[in-house]
Predict the structure.
Amino acid sequence: MARWKSQGRYPGIFVDERDPTHWRLVVNLGQAAPGEPRRRAVKVIHGSLSDARGAHTELQGQRDKREIMPQAGKAPRTVDEWFAVWLETYKRRELERSTFARYENDFRLYISPHIGRAKLRRLKPQDFQNFSNALADAGLEPGTIFQVVALLRQALSQAITLGIMTRNPLTGAKLPKRPGRRKLRVPSDEELRALLDTMSTAGASAYPLTRMALATGIREGELIALEWPSVDLRNGTVWVCRSASRVPAGPEGRRFYEYVFKSTKTDESTGAVPIDAGTAAWLKEWKKTVRAAKMALRPNHWTDDDGDLVFPCLSTFAGWPAGRAWQQGTLRKAFGRYAAKVDLGYLRFHDLRHIYGAVLHRNGVPLLTISRLMRHKSIKTTADIYGHVGDVERREAVNTLSAVFAAGNQKESR
């Protein structure tokens, strides 16, 4: 545990006696109202004395601009109390509804049951370590554990900055590392054809979305929200303009869910996805199928409430009319059954996007072109995912050296 020593020349700056690069910065915020206790803003950093002085000046500036203000009333005492305040005050207006719903869900399922009753000011590194271990013992995936711990860390850091907590309980705890990307076995061309042929022959309802995902690499939410006005069959282009996000609905936002369709931040260079001639021809026939279903089921059993969708549900399901957007869980289950049927093992629908990029790379398409087709923000993302070199490529690369050395030997023999 840190032992803080005041820096006489610099009031409000404290250094850890055991670590000269560990600093605690304190700024007095004053009273929120007469009779209220005085509040402090606290920030802990690592760095040099110059870094500490700069961060302290920045904290004072935030106070002077009233970006940090003393809180009136009784300060939250437990993790549960603080998390409720933090979500409502600092996050609800900042986040997308889907992200805010995920924060609420992670708090309700994982944080509150394990550490929610703990007193904020009494939290110790061991409490935080026990919380992380409890998530692992419960069988959660490493990615979920990292996500939940990062969320708790974010909330507690805000409490420390506002002076609700006087010390950082995360110091000394072993935080979980960000898990590596799941290794995906990319199916061969024959396996992918077998998957599509099997789904097409069986008339699988998930076949159109599966075929389109493999042909374009468009994300699941973007495919679900895709509308016909965004498809240019004449020029063979699909414009990705919006995406579907599943968010809680109802009074408590726990039992019922609905889709929120939001516009994607794209322009002409990033929103356009070209399609091959075969896919364009198939889409023309699929459009006729959708129109026929729409004509047959209108007006009582079809709705366009979710838009003029390219891939709507073509039949009523659980009381909902046809024409609605696919539910993600239903789509994933329907796809997963056929992936297992053709012996592709555990394959998620979202993996089709990565398979699209891997197949392009396997067929010699340059990484820059793949990056543009997949609408990555940076080619570094593309290189990290698809820039690996396999055993065959390594062997071919080494074999090119034999020609160089052979040429050198011929010169020496002369």
User: Anything to note?
Assistant: The chain has 15 helices and nine strands. Strands lie at 4-6, 13-16, 19-30, 39-46, 231-232, 237-239, 242-249, 256-263, 272-274. The CA atoms of residues 192 and 272 lie 25 Å apart.
